[in-house]
């Protein structure tokens, strides 16, 4: 083709594209204005959902969720919008854009606690009081779990599980060999660490990975919980403790320092799963990690109760479980509110929770489900404990009593402390964070017990 | 009016539109967003819902009150200096070595080898380097231990005191090839080749030719390399994100990573926009010398 013959079509194409874009824009705008007005028509049986369960193990749990939905409502067409990237970082980027643009999906995954509150504060969620009354969900779940999804007196999301943060996993075979008892207090932990170090000088008894930062706060949380007890723990993250002069916070940092020689040295380079990997590879014997580690150990061929054991840490002065739930809610302005409510009913049902939670690694949100549904003794025991002690649950780091802006910064300081143990500087830094991020104001919503 | 003239003019306008429209769209998107970010940094957007209420310098004050901001600024300056200066010097020597054919025969292969890292993404090279840096089982410490140099082993990116420097080393390694390529190209102008030839006839040493003839005459090339590297170093994000995620603590954090975390993790959108404006201001300062030089050349 000659040059002359192509020139004209190019400009025509450009003009065509511009016109097409204009038409599409106008049509889109018109469609947008029609969205709210089209209520008279029967709502489409469609559900657009945002979630971040895309990694191995979690993908299977998401499939289990949607299978439960299909079984109950075969007519609902599911539009998934999973955003890859663990922990929901990339998920939040995309979701934030959709929400700010007033184009919400029908429902999205959020953690109960501070993250949920940020969506409620933004006015993006519809209160679910009538749904809760209809399915009597408040009676089915522990009170502290209901509190974690209730803001200003209204429940806003339906939790489908509970992850527990303060669990100490240990190499069972090694503990049996050395005649050690799994530690449930700081003194026992230190004694076990010393015994392991003496028997296996090359080992770092306590595994740790702080690349994602929150792992450091986990360990610190367990130490704080033992030194201060549950009321102190809640008061601290509600910003009601003067950290600058508080002996408990300082003592917890000192204890973390005492553990340093027995902790894996290059923790800054490891993610949480890699820190559990230290236990599997024999570099470490113990690690403090949430219930999601059970799935990791199993994926490495370790059997719960045989190769590894788990205990709540600490268990003095009280056995408290620090927890956070995965939840789904109903978007304000959701294109398919009816289908979404159907979905939320499924989320609240054992039909969804049993297959999903068994696969994904948390506990059941409902306490009326038989704990024997779990294949591992660890979660059977935990679920039993929750069943008979539903009041012993407090929001953890991921659930976050304090606003998320504070919590992110707090993790950084905690992780920095594990790398460079400056007690005075850390006390000062953390104390500053409480005022900088207005924690008292932001955490006032949280009620415990 | 001349109808054929009008038709010709219309045709020309159409042609112009073909080129101008994309440019306009590009400028609109780029500078529109920039203006938006600029305004947002003065707004009071905290939380998930947009809030464009004017808040003045509130979030800038907040920013300079954060220890992390100053750590980041310090790290960004380290990146700008240590990511650029060694790269340019090394690239000059390598480009010169390749140019004078000091390493006959393997020159073409060597050039490919040096350029190859630039073809990979930072996510890939960051992962590779973080494996090499791994203190227990990584290749660097393993090699050092194997040859008995245990004293030289280190924690690399897990040591808060030195972590940033190990990250910058990845950057230098990755951008070296690109710098070599540009500098070698700028050696190739005809006048410069003639000058080199006459200098050689006068019996000047090779090192003297490099410093007295080549370097003073490739200022344009060097300026391009330095500007490119400065901008690349300034916007660094991926290496830090992949290798250390800003850690240990926030010892290796940089402005771009903090901007991401402030906006999407902390939901402090005004703060994130303010950080973006700081990065923009730094980029602006870096670009000025290049622009001045380019304009001088233009009007010469």
TrEMBL record, chain B:
InterPro entries: ABC_transporter_permease, MetI-like, MetI-like_sf. SUPFAM superfamilies: MetI-like. Residues 73-288 form the ABC transmembrane type-1 domain. Keywords: Cell membrane, Membrane, Transmembrane, Transmembrane helix, Transport. It is a multi-pass membrane protein. GO terms for cellular component: plasma membrane. It is found in: Cell membrane. GO terms for biological process: transmembrane transport. PANTHER family: ABC TRANSPORTER PERMEASE PROTEIN. This is Sugar ABC transporter permease.
